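call fold(seq) -> C-alpha cells
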Amino acid sequence: MLVNARGRRRAGRVSCATGALVIAGAVGAVAGAPGTAGASAPPSPVKHIVVLYLENHSFDSLLGFWCDDNPGRCPQGGMPGTVQLSNGALVTPSDMPDVPPIVAHTVHGQQEAIDGGKMDGWQLVVGCHPPHYKCISGLEPSQEPNLITLADQFAISDDYFSLADSPSWGGHVYAVTASMDNFLGDIPVSLPHKKSGPGWGCDSHHVTQWEPSGGGPLQTVPSCIPDPSLHEPHGGAFRKTPVAQVPSIMDRLSAAGLSWRSYGATVDKPGYIWSVCASLASCLDTSESSNVRPDSQVTKDAQAGTLPDFSIITPGGSDVANSWHNGNSTTAGDNWLGEIAGAIMNGPEWSSTVLFVTWDDCGCFYDQVPPPRAPNGRQEGPRLPLLIISPYARPGYTDTIRATSASILAYTERTFGLAPLNVNDLRAYEFGNAFNYSQPPLKPVHMVTRPIPRGDHIIWSQNNQDT
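ret:
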C-alpha cells in the first residue's frame, strides 16, 4: 500500500485480466469480459428506466478518495498520491470544499487536459492554474454520504466516459441522441443585436460551432437540431441551418407507443439551459405537456407509482442549487440525489425500475484514465461517475467494461426492443454484466438529509461558467 501526503492509504494500481470475472454479484466484485449475461439469461423485469443527469464532475473528483478505501471496487486505481503535469509540476490532490471551485470545461480545455491520452495538461484548464491547481481535487466520502451508500450497495462503472469532450450543452444533446450531430459542443452564445430567448437551444436565438460532414471550415449555426417534418420555418431553428435532423430516444419511444418524460426546468426558470428537449426541435415543438414536467415532479410521480417507461431528469427551477455544478453546495446535491433515489426505492414501482445516476461532463476536474474514441471516431471526454441502482443491480459490483451515455441508450433500446439511433449506441456495451435478473431483489437503502454548511451560498451566474 502507498501513503499519500494526506495520510490516507492508497491502493496500488490493480490489473484485471481480460475475460476474468470475479465472484459476480458478491460485494466487492469486479466485472470481466462483456457478454457474461448470456443468451440464456432470464428476461428483464425492468419496465421503468430513469436517468438522473447531474452537473460537472469527473470519476476521480467524486469517487477517487472512496476508491482509495475500496481498492477491490476500483481496478483503475484510486486518487493518485501525486499527479505529474506536463509543465513538470508534481501536484498532491487536495480536498474539495463543499462548494466546488469554478474551473472551465470547454472543448479546447478538455482536449488540453487529456493531452492525447497523457492526462497531464490540467494546468491549462482555465481556473486550474498554479499554485493551487484547484481542479486536481476530490470530495471525501463523508461529504457525499448518499452517493457513497448507493455506490457501496449497488453497482458502479469505473470505465464510463463522456461521449465527447464537450461541456453541458453538447453533453445534454448526446444524452438522448448518442451523437453530437457534428456540433463541436461548446456553450451557445447570443448574437449581437438579436433578442435572446430562454436557454441555449432552438428557442434561444443562440448560435454555436458546427463542422460539415464532408469537412471544410467550421460554421456558426443555430444551436438547434432541426426537424424538417415540422410545420415550422427552418425546421424549428430561428434561421436557415445546414444541420441535419437526427433521431432521439424520445422519437424511438413515441414511435413504439411507449411513454417518456423529461423532468427539468420549464421556460424562463433557472436551469432551463440544461433542458434536454430545448435543443431538439422534434422534442421542443411536438412534446405534449405531459411529457415535459418540472424536475420537482419526479419524486411525486415515483411515490405515486406513475413513472413513465423512460425518464431523464435535469436539475432546474428551485432545484438548480442541487445540481452539483461548480459553485453549488455538494451537500445540497447529495441531499437531492438521496431524495430522488429514496422516492424511487420506496415507491410502488421499485421492483421494475433501474435508476442510472451520472454527470454530464468533467467540470472540469482531474481524472487519471485516458478516454478512448467513440465508435463514430470522435474523441470521448474525461471519465465520469455512473451509479446503477436497481433491485437487479449486482450488489457491491464494479462494471469495468468501457461505456458512455450511449450505453444507457443501448440498455433502453434493448429493454424496450427499439432500433439504435446510430453507430455509437449500436456498438455500445449495454451493462449486461451489471445486472442479475435471477437474484433476490435488492431492498431500498437509507438516504439522509443534512443541513447545508453555514456560509455556503449559491450564485446563479456561476452556473453559466461552462466556457
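Residues 43-79+144-464 form a domain with the Alkaline Phosphatase, subunit A fold (CATH 3.40.720.10).
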